[in-house]
Design brief:
This protein has about 325 residues and is α+β, with helices and mostly antiparallel strands. It has 9 helices and 11 strands. The longest helix has 23 residues.
């Protein structure tokens, strides 16, 4: 048999529309695909099941094996056992628990590779539902399929994957400055589930404000390519969402070193200030590569002035990935 390779971009999650289903639908999300990190997995026939990849953690290996088993139980139950023996090779991986959607992309990348390897036609929402992804946000599912900038419609009580409301290509010249804290992880797993259960009710007025900012400021600014209006809407949405989650994550932002950088960026006049998901990755939306480099230089000079024993953030300039996952069959 041939080898199938699937490569999917990381995503930024920029906020929820309604955390409490005040109008019947819960969550609803804003986000986009980015080109700074990818998960890439190849599948080929093997005599026994194997998982291979440089520097794979035990957690990731266990997760891959669980995804593989769930795929064959839910979608590939008619495939003979002797044809289920595969080599799973992880060639690239999105950093885990950094707010970049690693879990969803890992599941969808492996699931899509297995489906393609066995010549099964399965759409991404179905794959996500069967593999247990998209339970809160549809951003990772939609960016896997299409890339670009996404708004999803949240979940009705009987839904498992939210509907896509808007997909828009992101301006090619705009950039996102990522501020990463490699020594810190965002809330995940049981702690994440507990946080959603124990956080106070999100005020209906705040939800209405976020929906209005999304529909009447952020999206028109994106279409009209107005980075200042777009960025201000992102910052205002993030302020409402971040302050609500502060009790669970220790402040508006999860990482203090990322928080300092984001505050400095705002002091320098930048308007698009955000944390992706639970962090710790922060992001600043800017209008060009030159503006991104200027900001990185300023932030880098400030962090160099910190005590030598303090953690240093990483700065990366990213573009939007406007294409989504790429599936290739290699002979």
């Amino acid at each position: 048999m041939n080898t199938v390779s699937v490569r999917a971009p990381a995503r930024l999650h920029l906020g929820f529309l309604d955390l409490n289903a005040s109008q019947g639908r819960k969550f609803g999300s804003i986000g986009l695909a980015i080109d700074s990190h990818y998960t890439e997995i190849s599948i080929s026939k093997a005599k026994e099941n194997r998982i291979h990849g440089a520097q794979l953690s035990e957690e990731t290996q266990a997760r891959l094996e669980k995804i593989r088993q769930r795929f064959y139980q839910a979608l590939g139950q008619n495939i003979p056992p002797d044809q289920q023996q595969t080599l799973i090779e992880v060639k690239q991986q999105i950093p885990e628990h950094a707010g970049l959607g690693s879990g969803t992309q890992l599941a969808l990348t492996l699931g899509t590779a297995l489906a393609s390897f066995h010549h099964l036609s399965i759409d991404t929402p179905t794959l996500a539902q069967k593999l247990g992804r998209g339970k809160r946000s549809g951003i990772g599912v939609a960016t896997f399929d299409q890339g670009g900038f996404i708004v999803d419609g949240g979940l009705k009580p009987d839904q498992t994957v939210p509907p896509l409301l808007m997909h828009q290509s992101y301006p090619d010249d705009w950039r996102i400055v990522l501020i990463m804290d490699p020594a810190h992880q965002g809330i995940h797993g049981k702690n994440e589930s507990t946080a959603f259960k124990t956080l106070p009710i999100f005020p209906l007025e705040n939800s209405r404000t976020i929906c209005h900012l999304t529909l009447m400021q952020m999206l028109p600014a994106l279409i009209e390519r107005d980075i200042d209006e777009f960025g201000q809407a992102i910052t205002d949405i993030q302020t409402l969402v971040g302050d609500h989650f502060a009790a669970a994550q220790g402040g508006r932002y999860t990482s203090q070193i990322v928080a300092r950088c984001l505050e400095q960026a705002q002091d320098l006049g930048h308007k698009g200030i955000a944390q992706s998901s639970w962090g710790p990755t922060g992001c600043v939306f800017v209008e060009s590569d030159a503006h991104a480099q200027q900001l990185i230089n300023a932030l880098h000079n400030t962090t160099l002035a910190q005590p030598s024993n303090s953690r240093q953030p990483m700065f990366i300039t990213a573009r939007c990935d406007n294409h989504g996952a790429i599936v290739e069959t290699l002979r």
